[in-house]
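hey can u check if this looks right to u? its 99 residues, i copy pasted from the old doc so theres a chance i mangled smth
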Amino acid sequence: MTKSQFRALIMLNAALLAILAAVVFSPSANAQNRPNRARGEYTMVSGEFQGASENAIWILDAANQELLALRWNHSQKKLDGIGFRDLSRDAAQTGRGGR
């Protein structure tokens, strides 16, 4: 490798490093248009539910007041979502007399 090729390779690497740093540290890369969420405080409970032979897993995020229900899909070997509840919204609706 000649000296000019070596310099060109160094310059190319420096330019790529600068582009990578600009992308990683840019404010828009960190924002991602999602609401601010508190760090979760999770509790997980399992049990039976009506209408299926499988058991369910309920995951409660107390910090964000959300409840997620999952069940194990034996054929695909993965968890399937059963339902989701926003408990703070449910409490607000109950307080207004609605359900």
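The chain has three helices and four strands.
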